[in-house]
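Morning F.,

Quick status update on the modeling queue. The single chain you submitted on Monday has been processed. Sequence for confirmation:
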Amino acid sequence: MLRQIKPRNARSKRALEKKAPKVVENPKTALFLRGTSCSQVIQDALTDLYSLRQPLAKKFTKKNAIHPFEDPASLEFFSEKNDTSLLVFGSSSKKRPHTLTLARTFASKILDMLELHLDPESYRKISQFKGRKFAVGLRPMMLFSGTAFESPVANEYTMAKSMLIDLFRGDSSSDKIDVEGLQYIVSVSAEEPVGDAVKPAIHLRIYLISTKRSGQRLPRVEVEEMGPRMDFRVGRMQEPEEAVLKEAMKTAKAGEEKTKKNVTTDTMGDKLGRIHLGRQDLSELQTRKMKGLKRNRDLEDEDMTNAPADEDAMKRQKK
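Structure tokens below.
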């Protein structure tokens, strides 16, 4: 049961209405923040992911004493305060060096979390790749390759796929996509699992798309790595509770058109309806009463027309 907050004034009422559930939800905003101990590699990774997420992103530069898996109360507070349902937390320790924690919230409470350990040897920043960059605010194409992401059972890789889609897809409120806006592709691949002991690494690559003349109807498409280049090892994970996940995945039925029984539309767009009636007794049908249709009036008219003919016949017999 979600707690209900009663607004105290008009300003807080407007703020609550903005955060209230809607038929078409607002785009998700991501919050990037760091812990008390954070390596320079993780700080650079947070900066690169923040630049890819703009303009739907917020970033904190100060240190925060947060331990997500031990006490997520601080993350929930920042999520509710900044109206961000996606959280990317960077930290580094001796036991878990160069760690990125992805978290999602529902009703300002932690829904699920996943820990990714970044490989500092293979990491490359965006600034290390020379060339043009994509425009801010565009939606990317996403590619997931590897059998680990297609597992029928929920695990670290299926959660990583879901979280990365939420992180990179941006504003998905509109179904219309301009082809000219497809300027880059996010490729996420995982090696084939060898055994249960060793978990395959996740490789994140981002490529810029360029079209060139090919002399034919369709252009030639070329890709160029734009950065960043990241390799992850999966760590701890916190799965969502079944009841909370069911509540979070619920969709409104207001936008769905209800089907009406016995009502169809033809090819011309005209609406046709079918009415079912019971068997009717026409003998009891009530009609409009008119004096001109009465039976007595008809008989009187016939007698008056026949009377002159009878008088003429009588006169002829007398003669």
